[in-house]
Amino acid sequence: MKNFEIGQRVVLIHTGVIAKIIRPEEHDMVIVELEDDASEIPVFKENIQLYDEWMSRSKTFSTSDDFVPFVSEKVKDEALLFVLVPTNVSEAGVPAKYELILVNATAFDLYAEIDVLFDGVKEMTISERVKAFSPLKVDEFTPLEFGDKPSVEYVFQRITTSGVEDFKKGALKLKDKTLLKSKMMIPLLDFPAIGIHIWQKGASPKKVEGSLKDYTKDFVSYRPKVEPPKKTVSGLYDPMKLANFPKEIDLHIEQLAQNHTQLGPSQIIQIQLRAMEQFVNEAFEIGMDSVFLIHGVGKGYLRNAIHKRLKYHPHILSVKNEYHSKYGHGASEVIFL
Fold first, then answer.
1. Were both Cys, which of 93, 101, 332, 334 would link to 321 (CB 3.0–4.6 Å)?
2. Structure confidence by residue, pLDDT tens digits, 260-297
């Protein structure tokens, strides 16, 4: 088994997630810190690869900020679309990241305003002129960031000889499972990638290439973000649901997955965190004042990952891991605002 050194940059070969070696563990395992959210998880050495080795053996396309494709002739079917390009794809077909590109395959220059959001929170804004028959790199995501529900809100204006005119506006959710069904040959880029049409010349606005039923909302008028309702008095919640909602969730993997013996450490903690987030969000919506997350004691990997994940949750007042008569130190209490 290959030895890894503390501080080395590695890639989780089954997910493409980039991490850093923190310390070695027994049974051919190491603790790594994920670059996306700084959480620490245990992984088997056989499930990681040095970052430089991954990159040298991976396949990618050139989509850097100064990338300008060679266009021998203008495309016949004008279109405007967002494209997700898998880059640094391993031999097993796992991408290390996706690049989000706007492709303006139209005969007009466009003025584009694009907001990139994660979990409904705006992370960045791009305001640029995009020339006719040209691409524009917008952002890039790791596979893990799809769990933060990335989306874009956009406003496009067409630049003509007579001035600027409104062209297209809307919002788009970037759901990886749905998007993977929509691979197509991308105009101008001349290679297959994941494309979502915003506009296509001569096509009905609600027709989208491929089976993208989830994206019909992309073609309705833009609606501003609606803030979630504030928690007020418990009388507004369904008393029956509130009374029957469990006060705790056991996050030990044997309680969450029947095939847990076949799962790797990284898969286990992903399942645990996903179950935790779903439980916490449902508890808030039901109207619970607090709940307990049973994570056990052990070496504290799951506990630390939970606390990091909930640190900036907008509806949580505090997360405490104090001694409890029922759980000891094996559970954390989540107290809602």
1. 332
2. 787 877 778 878 888 898 898 888 888 888 999 998 88
pLDDT one-digit tens code per residue, 27-72 = 788 898 887 667 788 888 888 888 888 777 655 544 333 333 434 3
**Cα R_g (the chain), whole angstroms:** 23
Q: How far apart are CA 302 and CA 133, in angstroms?
A: 49
φ, ψ at 146 (rounded to 5°): -65, -20
Task: For each of the domains in the chain, give its residue range(s) and CATH number, in order of start.
Answer: 9-57 (2.30.30), 79-219 (2.60.40.1600), 234-336 (3.30.1370.110)
